[in-house]
Please model this.
Amino acid sequence: MEMIIDFPGGARVDAHFGDITVKTDQPMMGKTVADPTPFALFLSSIGTCAGIYVLGFCNQRGLSTEGIRIVQRVGRNMLNGMVDNIDLEIQVPENFPEKYYESLVRSADLCAVKKHLENPPKFNVYTRAVSPA
Model:
């Protein structure tokens, strides 16, 4: 998969792949942002990925997803500001069958984003001069 990252102005940085554009922005003094920061987008990919697996689990069993939501809480290390834990709480309505609670957790645990964080890829960052198109 190839993504093209460009700089449309200000503190904006966008990613393009296929027919999709993911817009990001960075807050600056006195300026509100219209789009998420890259880091907020990264964090949201964890919860939404877990959500895809929970949705799939429910759909496969004919279970309604009405009233189900995932609350993601991010804990930071006070010394270095880095994220040191992420909690995903799957909230279900009272009438949701309790026999599926652990299976919901196992399904959310299958999240590909989470698995990549547990086994991170190697990053290769480099510069190459190109001719204008």
Remarks:
- The mean pLDDT is 94.
- The chain has two domains: 1-35, 39-118.
